[in-house]
């Protein structure tokens, strides 16, 4: 997260057998208490979700701890706390915004990223800017992250592949494919697949995305681009943006930290009246939001009506998923090391209707946070270091990544770079790092399995020291932890009451009670005597009695025949 952001943590509490007691839940940043909540337990089986928050004041890794105070008589106290790490950064997200004409979506994004959002370094290119008679030709100014912060307007695309790869996010609007050279298209693909960058496509009425069906960018767009996949035009009644179940849990869909309030905000947004006719998601695409029209079937948001075919929960879920994928508005996908996002409408600026900037800014801010979620957390402007996770389960092999760039953001390539592993103040290992070919100065190393504990990593090497000195720093380090190994039975000691209740319901007589409620279960016990009817089947050839009878009859016949001389 960025230094100017406020962090929210949702905490789920399970407090059983504590009716009538008060419990305090606190959030610590290191040893400093930053937030707390008091909870009144109103039942013996108590479940509550609360929200704790903090606004970090320093850049770097913060170790947070959520702690529930101990209660007299509590049996298990080792499950009263939970730790997590959070990376706080203040470096700017480098964004390249490309469009043909200054349509409304472009104008609001330019205003947002060029001044209001202080976490963004913007460059934008218009391929068909507004021109006036007598105006001199525009100078050739390639887009570059090395330009001064306030010089956001460029007249041409980045000069070469290396310049393309220096950006973090590229937003491509309604531009014709022929404005890109083959080198540009190859650089954009490499930016996503190899560099791990993010491209956001914003649909338009002229070119995006249909005109890209036969280009090198087609494989990045998570929509079917053939003519047979085109949807009908939007009716006069318009449509609403509705989040899918995946979208409600995704960071892009979070308009508010509280899920219920976030859903209310989405439901309050105005109708939109244009979307691309290409709204069929590819198999690799994940639909976060879809177009909900007035004519949409009821079973999308409610149970089927009497005049609609009956459905099992599984078949209903499949029907809904099919509808989502054929009416996709916001679709994401993974491509190589990077990510892509397709907005099938260019009307998100209408989120400002009657309320101004908040929801439009928040929506695009969340997109950028999702796009840059993998940025390295620790280091300086020129040297970055981080791991793929801050907390690892047992028997994991942590992956370490580093980035070395010069002042103009060009990559530094060296073979003399390694990461040192510390446990406490003791160095327990040193692992060389390898340069990722054609990357913007990225290096990687995979560590061996480590015992449970907290570890610190330091980057070392001649070029590392030289680059750090330019920023007035001596070293760059980051930390991570490995969870202790434990048998499955000891990972979660609390009873799964929902499962127990289902089992009890299946027996028709069972109930679920806590240990201190054992006496209450006596009245639910069945009578002492129970009559059970048991049915048994006997086959003739399996009966000893029939066998003896058969032998007796056969022997009697033989003896009788013997006496009368017939044998």
Structure description:
The structure is a single chain. The protein folds into three domains: 7-89, Immunoglobulin-like, CATH 2.60.40.150; 93-305 and 313-371, Class I glutamine amidotransferase (GATase) domain (Rossmann fold); 378-482, Immunoglobulin-like. The protein has eleven helices and 25 strands. The chain has helices at 104-116, 161-164, 182-193, 245-249, 259-268, 313-326, 358-371, 462-470, 488-491, 497-507, 544-563, and strands at 7-16, 22-29, 32-40, 45-54, 60-68, 81-88, 93-99, 120-126, 153-154, 169-172, 198-202, 240-243, 286-292, 328-335, 338-343, 378-379, 383-387, 391-392, 399-404, 418-423, 426-432, 434-435, 442-446, 453-460, 477-482. The strands form five sheets. Strands 9-8-7-10-11-15-14-13-12 form a nine-stranded mixed β-sheet. Strands 16-17-19-23-22 form a five-stranded antiparallel β-sheet.
């Amino acid at each position: 997260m960025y230094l100017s952001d406020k962090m929210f943590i949702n905490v789920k509490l399970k407090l059983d057998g504590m009716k009538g007691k008060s419990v305090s839940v606190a959030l610590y940043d290191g040893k400093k208490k930053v937030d707390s909540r008091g909870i009144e337990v109103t039942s013996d089986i108590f479940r509550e979700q609360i929200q704790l928050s903090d606004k970090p004041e320093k850049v770097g890794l913060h170790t947070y701890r959520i702690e529930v105070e101990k209660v007299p008589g509590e049996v298990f106290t080792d499950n009263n706390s939970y730790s997590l790490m959070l990376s706080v950064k203040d470096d700017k997200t480098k964004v390249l915004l490309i469009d043909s004409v200054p349509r409304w979506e472009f104008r609001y994004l330019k205003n947002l990223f060029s001044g209001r959002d202080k976490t963004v370094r913007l460059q934008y290119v218009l391929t068909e800017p507004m021109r006036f008679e007598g105006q001199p030709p525009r100078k050739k100014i390639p887009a570059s992250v090395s330009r001064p912060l306030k010089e956001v307007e460029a007249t041409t695309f980045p000069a070469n592949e290396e310049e393309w790869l220096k950006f973090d996010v590229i937003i491509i609007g309604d531009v014709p494919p022929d404005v890109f050279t083959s080198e540009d298209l190859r650089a954009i693909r490499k930016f996503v697949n190899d560099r791990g960058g993010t491209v956001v496509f914003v649909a338009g009425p002229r070119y995006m995305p249909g005109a890209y069906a036969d280009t090198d960018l087609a494989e990045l767009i998570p929509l079917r681009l053939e003519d047979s996949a085109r949807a009908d035009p939007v009716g006069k009644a318009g449509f609403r943006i509705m989040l899918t179940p995946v979208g409600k849990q995704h960071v892009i869909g979070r308009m508010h930290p509280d899920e219920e309030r976030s859903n209310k905000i989405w439901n309050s947004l105005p109708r939109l009246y244009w979307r691309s006719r290409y709204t069929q998601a590819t198999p690799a695409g994940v639909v976060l939001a879809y177009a909900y029209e007035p004519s949409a079937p009821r079973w999308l948001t409610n149970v089927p009506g009497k005049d609609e075919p009956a459905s099992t929960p599984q078949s209903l879920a499949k029907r809904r998923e099919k509808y989502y994928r054929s009416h996709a508005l916001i679709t994401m996908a993974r491509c190589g090391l990077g990510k892509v996002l397709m907005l099938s409408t260019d009307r998100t600026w209408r989120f400002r209707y009657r309320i101004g900037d908040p929801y439009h800014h928040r929506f695009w801010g969340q997109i950028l946070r999702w796009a840059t979620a993998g940025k390295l957390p620790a280091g300086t402007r020129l040297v970055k270091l981080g791991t793929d996770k801050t907390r690892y389960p047992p028997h994991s092999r942590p992956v370490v990544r580093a980035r070395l760039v010069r002042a103009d953001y060009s990559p530094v390539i060296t073979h003399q770079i390694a990461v040192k592993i510390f446990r406490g103040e003791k160095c327990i290992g040193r692992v060389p790092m390898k340069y990722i070919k054609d990357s913007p100065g990225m290096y990687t190393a995979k560590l061996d399995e480590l015992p449970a504990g907290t570890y610190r990593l330091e980057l070392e090497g001649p070029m590392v020291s030289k680059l750090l000195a330019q920023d007035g720093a001596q070293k760059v380090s980051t930390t991570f932890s490995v969870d202790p190994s434990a048998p499955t039975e000891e990972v979660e000691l609390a009873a799964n009451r929902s499962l127990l209740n289902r089992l009890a319901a299946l027996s028709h007589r069972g109930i679920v009670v806590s240990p201190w409620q054992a006496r209450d279960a006596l009245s639910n016990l069945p009578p002492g005597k129970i009559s059970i009817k048991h049915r048994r089947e006997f086959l003739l050839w399996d009966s000893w009695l029939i066998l003896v009878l058969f032998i007796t009859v056969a022997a009697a016949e033989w003896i009788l025949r013997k006496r009368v001389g017939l044998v």
